[in-house]
Design goal:
Blueprint lengths: L3 E4 L6 E2 L1 H14 L7 H7 L4 H9 L6 H16 L6 E2 L3 H10 L4 E4 L4 H10 L9 E2 L12 H10 L6 E5 L2 H10 L2 E5 L15 E3 L5 H7 L1
Parallel strand pairs: 1-4, 1-6, 4-5, 6-7, 7-8
Antiparallel strand pairs: 2-3
Helix pairs in contact: 1-4, 3-4
């Protein structure tokens, strides 16, 4: 088995979509805008808050209004952290199995520290996370490999000894660029089965992750 595992956060370990759906709905209601279909929001959570505002208000991400509304969305989301979402079913058990095998894990996410840190502090499933790498710590974010390479260093391992697990094309690219093995999460928000080469392992449900990791 790999000697260490690094994970993306949203759509991989954390089902944050329910919190984002409520947050965007509240913001749209504030400005008398119609709600989006929740599945549209879910499918774009991993694309970030800029994308959610663009979709919700039907404006270009380069529009000055988008930046203002995005800050309002982030403030709303901050008040809703873990209020409606949480670790995907099966994640707690999978991480416990890694712990039993003495395989450390960490998180490398494009989610800012102001949101990621409280989530790790308050979601008991993530209590044994050994390192958290956010954009605040880096010069370049995924698909650049910098974050994953730093995560490997924090675990005291060479990238070839680790696997990176994520639900977005940027995650797969970043893992490959870093020199880790990769696993795609098809139960997340972005990737679907068949999106990548048959040589890349993919999990259709969180309870498949431990078995896939153990195959590497």
């Amino acid at each position: 088995m790999p000697k260490g595992v690094l994970f993306d956060l949203d759509g991989t370990l954390l089902d944050s979509a329910p919190d984002f759906i409520v947050s965007l709905d509240n913001l749209l209601a504030k400005y008398n805008q119609p709600k989006l279909n929740p599945e549209i929001i879910r499918n774009h959570v991993s694309d970030g808050s800029w994308k959610l505002i663009s979709l919700g208000f039907n404006i270009d991400m380069s529009d000055n209004k988008c930046a203002v509304l995005r800050e309002e969305l982030l403030a709303e989301y901050e008040s809703n952290l873990l209020q409606h979402g949480g670790a995907f079913d099966g994640i707690k058990e999978m991480l416990a199995s890694l712990e039993e095998d003495n395989i450390p894990y960490g998180i490398v996410t494009n989610k800012p520290l102001r949101f990621a840190e409280p989530i790790l502090m308050n979601e008991i499933a993530f209590k044994n996370c050994k390192t958290l790498i956010c954009p605040d710590h880096l010069d370049s974010i995924k698909p650049d490999p910098e974050g994953i390479l730093r995560g490997c260093k924090d675990l005291g391992l060479h990238p070839s000894e680790c696997v990176y697990v994520g639900d977005h094309a940027k995650d797969i690219e970043a893992g490959i660029n870093a020199g880790t093995q990769v696993i795609a999460c098809y139960f997340g928000y972005s990737l679907k089965a068949g999106d990548h080469s048959e040589h890349i392992l993919g999990a259709n449900h969180p309870n498949e992750l431990y078995e896939l990791i153990s195959q590497l």
